[in-house]
Amino acid sequence: MPRMPRLLPASWRESDLWFSFRSHPSAVFAACLLALIALTALFAPLIAPQNPYDLAALELWNAELPPLWAEGGQWPYLLGTDTQGRDILSAILYGSRVSLVIGLASVVAALAVGLTLGLVAGYFGGWVDNVIMRAGDVLLSMPFILIAILISAMATAALPAGLKGLLALPILVIAIAVPSWVQYARTVRASAMVERRREYVQAARLIRVKPWRIMLHHILPNTLTPVMVAATLNFGLAILSEATLSFLGVGMPPDQPSLGTLIRVGNQYLFSGLWWIVVFPSVQLCLIVLCVNMIGDWLRDALNPKLR
């Protein structure tokens, strides 16, 4: 009988990280569940019974239907409908895609800025280090959510009405990424200050290797371990921040709902008996953040030699 082809390269299958992952049941469960959520969100147009963005697809005569297993539920509205006849399951699938994209994009943007500024501050030191770190201290002295609200509100107010909906997602990414880069910069700076005193960095300086090559090829690879853990955990925080901003009304608009927007809209009908409008998006948000945090906890333990 022919053997099944292996999806992972041999170097990865034989690594300690892969062995640690296979030996960690909660990490495997969280990764599988998060992959399922991401795939269903990615293929939402093929899976969802309805396009919640298409107003022509909404059926007002099917509004406020309860979940399928409750009295009055109808197929194909598995999780019921809202007050406009929008299918809750379809809205959750599309909303999860928006939330995951915003969370991932904001983490990547903050990581790029934080890595760059942290490497520069740690390698050069002196006044360069003071300027970058004092700017970070100013951001840390203000509440995270307040900075995000201020950036989002100012950008939205400065844009023409026709561009507010189109640029809502990149504005939200910037609003979350701006106060988030400081943590990466401080982590990389601390590692870079240690690595720049190593013999191999001193040898590279003696043969006049350019500073940017030293930072990218010698220092950066040795600073990525704590950054990977921080980025994983901050991915969940970024999704929660997006949900908070959307819940407060300065995030995604109602015609492009994220999970936070769905929770904000559903919260208005919580005490009128339409509990499913807010409960199911909240459960989806909790599952995503829980899976990300479980993977982050495993990664922190796996990459920390003191915990092995």
UniProtKB/TrEMBL annotation:
What Gene3D superfamilies does this protein map onto?
MetI-like (1.10.3720.10)
Its membrane topology, per UniProt? Multi-pass membrane protein
The record lists the membrane-crossing segments as 100-126, 138-159, 165-184, 219-240, 274-299
Tell me which stretches of the chain form a coiled coil.
none
Domain spans labelled ABC transmembrane type-1: 96-296
Asked if the keyword Nucleotide-binding belongs to this entry, the reply reads no
Q: Name one GO cellular component term.
A: plasma membrane
Q: Name one GO biological process term.
A: transmembrane transport
What's in the keyword line of the UniProt record? Cell membrane, Membrane, Plasmid, Transmembrane, Transmembrane helix, Transport
Task: Reply yes or no: does the keyword Membrane apply.
Answer: yes
- Subcellular location, in the record's words? Cell membrane
Q: Which organism is it from?
A: Paroceanicella profunda
Q: What protein name applies here?
A: ABC transporter permease
Entry similarity comment: Belongs to the binding-protein-dependent transport system permease family.
**InterPro entries annotated for this entry?**
BP-dependent_transpt_permease, MetI-like, MetI-like_sf, OppC_N
